[in-house]
Specification:
heterotrimer; A alpha/beta; B alpha/beta; C alpha/beta; B: alpha/beta; six-stranded mixed β-sheet; four-stranded antiparallel β-sheet; 10 helices; 14 strands; 27% strand; elongated; C: alpha/beta; abc type-2 transporter like fold; five-stranded mixed β-sheet; 14 helices
Chain lengths: 316, 311, 377
């Protein structure tokens, strides 16, 4: 029904200042119908502030944003009618029954009475709660609650959906089922914006935007980010004893980053092929037995940490 | 050497649910042991029992050489517990919080001063001693909580989801501090619902609805996954999924942001078959390759079969 | 405003209210309690005021006159004494609120057409009761005067001027019958009761709610250390507060202070212990700060306000309620504090009140310690 090339969110030179502190520093972004976009960044980087501006909850200090065609500064009320919002800890009323929550939010979002019955049925089906309408919400396992919260957030079929760490703490199976739902909504043309600290969650997004100190510092699909943003290559070193290995490697100039991962070390070097024999030599020179040393694919977390480290170094 | 933490058949029941069901494991000094699982798996309940804050319904537990059930006060003097909701007093400063916990554990003044300086330096928090704890960022609160937990040189530290809601950079700092403690012989038992953090522990107990499914190192854990994990990177993920879901040898398949991940029974055999199938359906993709399984992959595989759930 | 949204919010609130049992109990139970307390406990009209008489003449006429007091339902003539000191003691001890003294020349004067005054010593600590006692006495005397006059006229054919009988009143303890002197010391007691227990009622519940208690409980700290460590600062604050209020009462409101400071401080200490321990016990048992403060308020403010003798004298309450007041610590403290300010009675009259407070303090402290467990479950 929707033209999948329609841009539903546009932000141009968005700035938000709190006193002298610049929380959001000239951000430009775009999102299309059917896209799932993830916002990543440290706390205080400006993610929540940006989201709040896009939801019409905060006025930009300068810049412009159009959400679902409405200006966030001047038509905030309209903006809010066209978005669905699901927060981390589910804004459901735990002491109400499932069906009571659904009806309540239906009324809040002005769902026309004629459509309400149909939408109620849809939410119950989608959340797997058919037959459990009278269950008190607080007693539901978290996976079900999460899907119910999602259902309640989209009762009014908004074209845009904001999710704030929606699956933290939820078991992986429920998480996958949840993301199935999100992706099917995206296939129907909904634009989904997600903020998260969970790298696992970030992997489910089509596109990721990394925000650091109020600016966008990287953007792309998870694979693109993993390939392009790491300066250097990642090595896995399994060796013993680990402590001595750590000490030995601290002073090797070639190494850009060094971290312990359980029983192994993750090391970022300029060039894997030349580094491997070099490091092997350094370690055995210190009496460390190396059982494995090989290049591995960086995870999103590696990317994230590496990028923010570079940027921090750059600032200081 | 006897283990620093020894748990046998630990059980806790609440009305209508068995939160922890005969949990058994051991942790040595200098080890980081992870209790991993989603919300409701029993992690917090287990840690609370080890901290002596909750009385078990069955089983036994020794922490730092003392029986936590029958001689809790001895054990409590040797352990440190950081609960999920901080034990920090938001209306006291960083310094005052540290001092409180030091005094409660009877740490002498010179020792407290020396140790708190060292810990705060390691945490990068020395400039903030006069700041109210309530005004710290999430990551700094975590670190302060850890400093308070370490001020009395415990033998065992129990951490309940210490990196919840903390961004990855602060999480790495936190882990760096944890690893540096191991050299002192401290043993760390922590819980997390971030499955990727499980990779950082020496050994992991995978918990699901109160039961322990496995208790091994992350590497060993992954060997339990039957099959191989493949990743297909493509912009056309949904259609690829539809095309491959019923293909031979595909055990699980699910959507991710930029493609599809699947578990096949025999990679060498199936990869060419899948490529052919995609070509036949005129579906383009950037890459199709074997990837290392994550703990999440294992968890899904194991819990789908154990509880009979299907996706 | 849209109607359906309004209705939706109303419906949701109603559902939630119905399921919040504790708050419901309060909304239903409180009004009932208040109705009962005010309906039964509160009497502005007075009855059975305890009276002692000292009949110095002991004639048939004086006895006859006294019978009018006995017959009145407002008074309850408890005892006849035969000396002034006995009367004073009785007033001091609170055994009577009104003392009537008949002079030695009572009948002589009346029969010779003269006038005579009987003395009425009234305990004015509760000025309300005192005023009422006086006006009831006046009306008895008036009635008696009427009879005397009729009698005289019948016998002698002419009226007697002035009225033969009068009352010479002496107010005891609160000479100007000022309500301030009555109320203000009482207010000090109410303040202590409420503030003391309200403050401490939050302390434990707050730590559980914030999550810091969970960590404390995992340390070697003992329940006693915890309790004493927490209560001492509140005790200090409470004591300072009380002294401030007492100072204000004395120097601003000019309420007399006739007792001994030592006794005052001792009784304040004991009562503070009682209310602090009560608040602490509430805090240990209540599941949230909200529940704790609600419970503390009900457990201390209402009884202190209604059943301690603050506004409504205990001896005027129906016997059932009077019995209940024996388990209200505030009752004993109210009595002591009023005595210390207005009466200045010797310590011996206050001992049983102080003892009662000490017993309560011990019991509640024990209860509070036992109730606290260093475990979640």
């Amino acid at each position: 029904m929707t033209d999948l090339d329609t841009t539903t969110i546009v932000g141009h030179d968005l700035v938000k200042r709190f006193g002298t502190f610049v929380a959001v520093d000239h951000i430009n972004l775009e999102a299309r119908a059917g896209e799932v976009v993830g916002f990543l960044g440290p706390n205080g980087a400006g993610k929540s502030t940006t989201i709040r501006m896009l939801c019409g909850l905060l006025r930009p200090t300068s810049g412009q944003a159009l959400v679902a065609g409405y200006d966030v500064a001047r038509e905030a009320e309209q903006v809010r009618r066209h978005i669905g919002y699901m927060s981390q800890k589910f804004s459901l009323y735990n002491d109400l029954r499932v069906i009571e929550n659904i009806r309540f939010f239906g009324s809040m979002y002005d769902v026309p009475a004629a459509m309400l019955k149909e939408r109620e049925a849809w939410v119950l089906e989608m959340a797997g709660l058919v037959g459990r309408e009278s269950t008190v919400t607080g007693t539901l396992p978290s996976g079900w609650k999460q899907r119910l919260a999602l259902g309640c957030a989209v009762l009014h079929r908004p074209p845009i959906l904001f999710l704030d760490e929606p699956t933290s703490g939820v078991d992986p199976i429920s998480r996958r089922q949840f993301w199935e739902l999100i992706h099917s909504m995206a296939a129907d043309g909904v634009t989904v914006l997600v903020t998260t600290h969970y790298m696992d969650e970030a992997e489910y997004c089509n596109r990721l935007i990394l925000i650091f100190h109020g600016r966008i510092v990287a953007s792309g699909s998870p694979s693109e980010l993993k390939q392009q943003t790491m300066t250097g290559e990642l090595l896995l070193i399994e060796c013993d004893p680990l402590g001595r290995a750590l000490d030995a490697l601290q002073h090797v100039p070639d190494i850009r980053d060094l971290a312990v991962f359980g029983n192994a070390l993750h090391v970022v070097v300029q060039h894997a092929q030349t580094a491997i024999p070099h490091l092997r030599g350094v370690l055995s020179g210190q009496g460390v037995t190396v059982s494995r040393i090989e290049p591995i694919h960086p995870s999103l977390e590696d990317v994230f940490v590496s990028l923010t480290a570079q940027l921090s170094a750059h600032r200081t | 050497m006897p283990p620093t933490v020894a748990v046998t058949d630990l059980t806790k029941r609440f009305p209508g649910i068995t939160a922890v069901d005969r949990l058994t494991f051991e942790v040595q000094a200098g080890e980081i042991f992870g209790l991993v699982g989603p919300d409701g798996a029993g992690k917090t309940t287990a840690l609370r029992m080890l901290a002596g804050v909750l009385t078990p319904d069955g089983g036994s537990a020794t922490v730092a050489g003392a029986d936590i059930i029958h001689d809790p006060e001895t054990a409590k003097a040797r352990l440190s517990y950081m609960p999920q909701r901080f034990g920090l007093y938001e209306d006291l400063t960083v310094e005052e919080n540290i001092r409180f916990y030091a005094d409660v554990f009877g740490v002498s003044r010179p020792e407290r001063v020396e140790r708190s300086q060292r810990l705060l330096d390691a945490a990068g928090m020395s400039p903030f001693t006069d700041r109210l704890a309530g005004k710290l960022s999430g990551g700094m609160k975590q670190k302060l909580g850890l400093v308070c937990a370490l001020i009395h040189r415990p033998q065992v530290i129990l951490l309940d989801e210490p990196t919840n809601g903390v961004d990855p950079v602060s999480r790495r700092d936190f882990w760096r501090i944890l690893y540096s403690l191991l050299a002192e012989g401290i043993c760390i038992v922590m819980s997390t619902s971030y499955l990727d953090e499980a990779e950082r522990c020496h050994r992991v107990a995978l918990l699901h609805q109160g039961h322990m499914l496995y208790c091994e190192s992350p590497a060993e854990l992954k060997t339990h996954l039957r099959g191989t994990v493949l990743s297909v990177v493509s912009g056309d993920a949904r259609r690829i999924r539809t095309a491959l879901v019923d293909a031979d040898g595909v055990l699980h398949i699910w959507l991710v942001g930029d493609g599809v991940r699947l578990v096949v029974d025999d990679a060498t055999r199936r990869i060419p078959e899948l490529r052919a199938a995609l070509r036949a359906a005129h579906l383009s993709f950037d890459r199709l390759e074997v990837v290392k399984p994550t703990i999440e992959d294992l968890f899904v595989a194991v819990t789908s079969t154990s509880s009979g759930e299907t996706s | 405003m849209r109607c359906h949204r309004l209705l939706a919010i109303m419906r949701k609130e109603t559902l939630q209210i119905r399921r919040d049992l504790p708050s419901l109990l309060i909304t239903v139970a409180m009004p009932l309690l208040l109705m009962l307390a005010f309906g039964y406990g509160v009497r502005f009209d007075v009855q059975h005021i305890p009276v002692y008489v000292y009949d110095r003449e002991g004639s048939q006429q004086s006895q006859d006159f006294l019978k009018h007091f006995q017959a009145s339902e407002y008074f309850s003539v408890i005892k006849a004494v035969d000396s002034y000191p006995a009367l004073i003691d009785a007033l001091d001890a609170g055994a009577c609120r009104l003392a009537i003294v008949i002079p030695t020349d009572f009948s002589e004067r009346l029969n010779t057409g003269g006038s005579v005054g009987i003395q009425a010593l009234v305990d004015a600590t509760d000025n309300n009761t005192a005023n009422i006692s006086l006006s009831y006495s006046e009306s008895i005397v008036q009635a008696y005067n009427q009879r005397l006059r009729l009698d005289w006229v019948q016998r002698h054919g002419q009226d007697v001027m002035p009225p033969p009988l009068r009352i010479d009143t002496r107010t005891w303890f609160n000479e100007n019958l000022e309500s301030t002197a009555n109320i203000v010391p009482g207010v000090v007691a109410i303040i202590m009761a409420v503030i003391g227990s309200f403050l401490t009622s939050l302390t434990i519940a707050r730590e559980w709610e914030r999550g810091t208690m969970e960590q404390l409980v995992s340390t070697p700290v003992t329940p006693i250390e915890l309790m004493v460590g927490k209560l001492v600062p509140y005790f200090a604050i409470g004591l300072i507060d009380t002294m401030l209020c007492a100072g204000l009462a004395i120097w601003w409101f000019e309420v007399p202070f006739r007792g001994q400071w030592g006794v005052f401080v001792l009784s304040c200490t004991l009562f503070l212990l009682v209310v602090l321990a009560l608040g602490y016990a509430v805090s240990v048992v209540a599941k949230s700060q909200l529940a704790a403060s609600q419970a503390a308020l009900i457990a201390t403010f209402l009884p202190a306000f209604l059943l301690s003798g603050f506004l409504y004298p205990i001896d005027q309450m129906p016997s059932v309620i009077r019995i209940i007041t024996h388990v209200i610590p505030a009752r004993y403290f109210m009595s002591v504090i009023r005595d210390v300010f207005l009466k200045g009675s010797p310590l011996v009259y206050l001992l049983d009140d102080l003892l009662a407070l000490a017993v309560f303090a011990t019991l509640l402290t024990l209860l509070a310690t036992r109730a606290f467990h260093k475990t979640l479950a």
